[in-house]
TrEMBL record:
SMART domains: HTH_XRE. Keywords: DNA-binding, Transcription, Transcription regulation. This is Transcriptional regulator with XRE-family HTH domain. It holds the Pfam family HTH_3. It comes from the Bacteria.
Amino acid sequence: MDIIKVFADNVKKYRLVLGLSQEAFAEKSGLHRTYISAIERQKRSIALDNVQKIADALEIETHLLFIDGEKTLNE
């Protein structure tokens, strides 16, 4: 499993479910838009405190960002 890809895909999926642009989501999470963009494009690793900020802004449990949805669907 590529944890960076799984995390990036989940951030984008949950952000879109909330109907948030990267800019609106960045503001909600207290992170910069380019940082959010880089995470979603798998160009950045992320510190644990920022993982928590993202989960809080998405209003989800942190562990959900690390579940491989594709793998779950294909099993």
